[in-house]
Amino acid sequence: MTAAVQQGGPRLLTDDPGRLLCVEEVAALLGMSTAWVRQHSNGLRRPGIPSVKLGKAVRFRRSQVEEFIRSMERLA
Predict the structure, then answer these.
(1) What is the average per-residue pLDDT within 27-35?
(2) Which residues are 52's β-sheet partners?
């Protein structure tokens, strides 16, 4: 078990690549707040982050988050 899990923080992002990520993990990966991630995943803000709704929970596929990051890159 990692220190982040023991302290209640986001899990290691290098875990199982097929595991869905939670809002806190995506926020840490993007360097943004959890509120920002929620707003961009539920359609309130653009650009939208692809997400999976499971009841009240929202989860993210790491591959889709990485593609989102690539799509936001700006070329000089």
Answers:
(1) 96
(2) 59
